[in-house]
Amino acid sequence: MKKFLLISICMLSLAHLYAQGYKTTKGKVTFFSSAPVEDIKAENKVVTGLFDAQTGSLAFLVPINGFRFPKSLMQEHFNEKFMESHKFPTATFDGELLGFNISKAGTQVVQAKGNLTIHGVTVNANISGNIEFREDEVYMKAIFPIKLVDHAIQIPKVLFYNIAEEMEVTVNFVLKKLEEK
Predict the structure, then answer these.
(1) How far apart are the first and last CA of the chain?
(2) In a 3-state reduction of DSSP, which class is residue 51?
(3) What's the pTM?
(4) Which H or E element spans position 14?
(5) Which of 30, 71, 110, 181 places its Cα 20 to 30 Å from the Cα of 145?
(6) Does the pLDDT of residue 106 top 60, yes or no?
């Protein structure tokens, strides 16, 4: 909870300070699990985030109960049994984006380095992705794996063949330039 508050405060502070700041409140994160019994996919469209193109600072906040599943029972099990969203309500990333040029046209390959916190466990993350600057918007996209064991997420033995030990995560963010104050 302390980390959530700290990131929220940082995000609000950044929004007022950065002349090259960008923000999203409708970012999209999906994950996909392919296991012998079934495939599971969920989508979250209530991700918030900030990016400072001047420094490369980047922060995102993903409410865990914002993931939507095709079956309501999957969503219930996800929140109650695996992610314990009542104890760990958010996933966060805070770090920096490396390898971009704000004045370059077209899609650029970049690296995001920082702290990825899921299920209350923080790991150092190095995520490859793409960025594109368009007028007053920034488009970011990345696809990367997350191992459940790295974040102390346990699969009940009865569901071992239903859920993969590694998820594929896809992020798609459109960040809009903050108005200068």
Answers:
(1) 30
(2) strand
(3) 0.86
(4) helix 2-17
(5) 71
(6) yes
